[in-house]
Design brief:
single chain; alpha/beta; about 10% strand; elongated
Length: about 675
Amino acid sequence: MPTSDKLLAIIDGHLDSGKFRQQHWEGSFFQYLDMVVASPRLARNAFQRVYDMVLHFGTERYTYLKQEYVHYKFFDDPIDHGVDAIYGLDSSLMRLVEFFKSAAQGYGTDRRILLLHGPVGSSKSTIVRVLKKGLEYYSKLDEGALYSFTWKLPTEGGGVELYPCPMHEEPLKLIPTAARREILGQLNADLSEDRQVRVDGHLDPFCRKTFDDLLLKYEGKWRKVLDHIVVRRMALSEKDRIGIGTFQPKDEKNQDSTELTGDINYRKIAQYGSDSDPRAFNFDGELNISNRGICEFIEVLKLDVAFLYDLLGASQEHTIKPKKFAQTDIDEVILGHTNEPEYKKLQSNELMEAFRDRTIKIDIPYNIRLTDEIKIYEKDFSKERVRGIHIAPHTIEVAAMWAVLTRLEEPKKAGLTLLQKLKLYDGKAIPGFTEDSVKELREEHPREGMQGISPRYIQDKVSNCLVGEQAQADRCINPFMLMNELETGLSHHSLITDEEQKKRYKELLTIVREEYEDTLKGEVQRAISADEDAIRRLCTNYLEHVRAYTQHEKVRNKYTGRDEEPDERLMRSIEEKIDIPDSRKDDFRQEIMNYIGALALDGKKFEYNTNARLHKALELKLFEDSRDTIKLKNVVSGVVDDETQAKIDVVKQRLIKFFGYNEASATDVLNYVASIFARGDAKRGD
């Protein structure tokens, strides 16, 4: 048990008093102006800050289907070690970052509402969550520092009272508009387009009144007014409602637009004498407090029409209209997300044309690449998170494969199955298909991924398996348990009411089961034929006969000592395993000998696993020979002698060592594959 001193030391290790002071810097307006002259990026607007934040974490470039993609590491969620990592959506995320880049340069997209559109569970909310989390983190770094100010005003008793700017305004807004353009011109003289300092609009009503009152008091002496300003560094925080806001629609009858733009503080009206005095107003609506940062609208298209009108001005004009006050300038990213049914209603509503015109839609589809889909579930059900229950190999893979299949459209190309299409999308090679032909497949169905099974459904069913009675008893789950859970759950799926669709999804599960059976057979075959000494001896024997055959020589029988013709039956029994026809056997054998000769010239030795095709053929031949000695069909009946049991135990250990099974799942796999081969033997016997 650790001592309290050790626990306290851990806390101290995570707290840096020097960094704390730096993040809570305070100074005069003139000190801040010097800092901006030295580093103009301090005065970035919200779009510039978000774009810089994404780039701060770096990028990786790669090519897929002859098209170059940029992977933004920010969306791997390095801040939270991948908790909200987003997989397989690089194309959509590239469009998202391009939106921020264009907006950062003031090319018009800064006057649009960003709408993430896609099916349920496609990571829309996760993308926004990562952006908000990133802004909080980035604002605490030196690279992401931003500043606001506080009014220091005298009280009647001779003291001083502090009034923070309610909308966290940029301090450069305190520069009179008459001089601002010239000052910004000098600041931007040597800056590139995307680095330009942009300070638009006026102070919020509270700060504007305070500024005007002080200017009147000091007879227009601007510098004297600024003596009442304390510039302070601030950190964006959703919990503290600083620069990050979230709005979620409620019951239409209870919606009130003041939730967006603030409301009158009735208790202060008596103090200040008017409900139009900004000191008697709470600038705490979501659009107020989101100034300088980002405002998220959950299910934005479910908003009441009055709210949408507020959003039109907020996006296009960068202004909001608080009750009893003039238009108030804002600087923030407005981002909403919605599902397919709500977006279709928007498209068919002619009264919403103005809203559609001010919206930039980015589709966020489901994954259609198997590898990326698997990553989602491996993150949620890793060994670190699921303790005490073994998840058998391929359990997550079969669920991901089924999910992706439900999202794909049937290929138009004759002879291509849906499963083959899945493999092609995932980068697997299939004879007769090039990158260009795979690209054509993608272009045939541009909306692939916008429907199908949600990752949430898969996550729910994996969770059900993990807490089920069988899993708790066996401390293990396997693909068959999960596939049964997936199929059973379709009967109660709240979003799938079409019986034809349910039927199709069940048929796709059958395809996945067959693919899984083939995978199991392959693994058991490799486990049985994984005896390196035996496979090496078989390879040596084969090559000896091939060399003699190609050189028109004889082979000495090591038992009789006589020279004999090369064993054609042995050579063909291996070559047939990889579909080398009799008409091609001479070419294949000569290729092998030429390959061995080329390696020898380079001082290298040919091994049994040097040539992939030959290695596979040797494994299949050894499996065929070993299968009868292990008597797999007897495993099913349970009648196994000690010698056979010892061989089976060796195969089990190989399944555990090479493929990641545990004792129970390896036994299950071996029994299942044995039953498959037993059925096959029975059919051949018939």
